[in-house]
């Protein structure tokens, strides 16, 4: 698992029952908002781990609260139902992934290298966090409409990489950009569903070529196929 902690830790990357996350019974001296934040974070981490292990259709509130070490009453204090918990985990995690990709992209001097760097960051993140990878790409298909809408918004967030005014890019129809993003998403889905999440970084050359091809052409995109990660 990743060594990240705090705001940059993907949901499911930490055990909800780590000793430092425990709240002592009785007078613990913590403000109510701090206690609520700890409980919410523990529930989100537990949710992702339970869903990754059992699948969303087999996930129950009892399983989540058991993994988090809290009561059902505490769960309902934060979420109306399992979809609400899923939405919180999904929105938090995907924002972190996009943030890492954006920072990697911004550190490169050319658009093509920026795309490669962003893809590298995404693939490395998903490979290091198999729980969140499975929940956000595979189990999300079993979630309710609120979560599925959030997935569409998340995928739309990738459009900015192909319309960056900092580079003189050829205009590409939105449908083409969405098709590129969908193709990358599909490649990740297949690997994760097949139990090959750890091998995701090996896809970097092919996915870089696929993402660049419509904007820079075959001749300029082809060298990226030879650059193994």
From TrEMBL:
Residues 60-79 bind DNA. Residues 1-34 are annotated as: Disordered. It holds the Pfam family TetR_N. It comes from the Bacteria. SUPFAM superfamilies: Homeodomain-like. Gene3D superfamilies: Tetracycline Repressor, domain 2 (1.10.357.10). Coiled coil: none annotated. Residues 37-97 form the HTH tetR-type domain. Keywords: DNA-binding, Transcription, Transcription regulation. The keyword DNA-binding applies. PANTHER family: HTH-TYPE TRANSCRIPTIONAL REGULATOR YJDC, TRANSCRIPTIONAL REGULATORY PROTEIN. This is TetR/AcrR family transcriptional regulator. It comes from Actinomadura yumaensis. The lineage of its organism: Bacteria, Bacillati, Actinomycetota, Actinomycetes, Streptosporangiales.
